[in-house]
Automatic annotation (TrEMBL):
Single annotated GO MF: RNA binding
GO cellular component, one term: UTP-C complex
Protein name per its UniProtKB record: Ribosomal RNA processing 7 homolog A
Pfam families, per the entry: RRM_1, RRP7
Annotated signal peptide: none
One GO term of the biological process aspect: ribosomal small subunit assembly
Domain named Ribosomal RNA-processing protein 7 C-terminal: residues: 108-226
Top-level taxonomic group: Eukaryota
Amino acid sequence: TWPPNKTLFVLNVTPYCTEECLSRLLSSCGTIKTVELKEKSDHAESPKEAKSEFFHPKPVPGFQVAYVVFQKPSGVSAALILKGPLLVSMESHPVKSRIHKWVREYEESVLDPEALRVEVDTFMEAYDKKIAEEETKAKEEEGVPDEEGWVKVTRRDRRPVLPQTEAASLRVLEREKRKRACKELLNFYAWQHRGTKMEHLAQLHKKFEDKQRIELMRAQHKFRPY
């Protein structure tokens, strides 16, 4: 958190006032370490967190709040008794507005490809290092019970889940059907034995009818196999 005895909390900061402008206005009170503008107050957030130059939410235009951290507590005391209007725009430090402000915002929106590549590479190196450390730690703790005797099951221990598609479901059903057919006892019951005999007789009867039909066609000179 911000040091309470060295931080000045400023409300209703105009959108035209930047961090550099606010630092200039309060520089007479003492040496300023950091100035940070935010959309709303957040006392739980630390100003020492690294901010990305490229990847950050777009600020909402409107009045903001500021956290001004002085080097000494006396800077806050001097700022609280500061009198007189503080001019944001002066001849020596003019504030760009309207079309000049839009041109400045457009120029700031154009990214430097090389700087962007460096930041992305740095982030990915840190991320890969973090993932490698987590995997190494998970391998070391794999199968090792904790103090209470419990073994943690990680995602690496589980088998990959097959995609639930119609073709995959049909293959699973066909595989289960073949397994049941292999396990089933043939001709164990009397009705199974009778059914097998009837199927065999039906096949013989069909073959005999086909043979009679071929002989009849051959006698009528209608059989031409080629």
